[in-house]
Amino acid sequence: MTTTAPASLDAIFAALADPTRRAILTMLLEDDMAVTDVAEPFDMSLAAISKHLTILAEAGLISQEKRGRVKWCKLEPLAMEGAITWLQSFGQFEPLDLDAFERFLETELRMLEPEAEARPQP
Q1: Interval 20-66: pLDDT, tens
Q2: Of the candidates 58, 19, 52, which has an alpha carbon nearest to the alpha carbon of residue 35?
Q3: CA 120, CA 116: separation in Å to the nearest integer?
Q4: In a domain, 116, yes or no
Q5: Number of domains the chain is built from
Q6: pTM for this model (two decimals)
Q7: CATH code (residue 79)
Q8: C-alpha dist (Å) from residue 113 to 5, 18, 104, 109, 116
Q9: How far is CA 84 from CA 31, 51, 75, in A?
Q10: Who has the most CB within 10 Å: 24, 43, 48, 120?
């Protein structure tokens, strides 16, 4: 019997897969931030940051609200509850060490890169 993760988990893990989005979430741990303030430390356009914010919002990890002319971003930490519960159900990730999990994923992805390069291009 095969089961798949619910779409919300897929969206959360896809959002967390990008280092820029993880950095944004870390920034929002401190306080709500205006979109322009979120964009400031990154060497990319405001449009690119907005795309990252949209992905985070669609995953439910942040919310956005317009206050006057300024769009604000707020961390929604409860959105990760399902993902954390899912990860912890595997036991080997308790206590949850996301840094170790990230290193594991990076190693696995590096091992897959030579296979992808060896495939003929269409």
Answers
A1: 999 999 999 999 999 999 999 999 999 999 999 999 999 999 999 99
A2: 52
A3: 9
A4: no
A5: 1
A6: 0.68
A7: 1.10.10.10
A8: 25, 17, 15, 6, 5
A9: 22, 25, 16
A10: 24
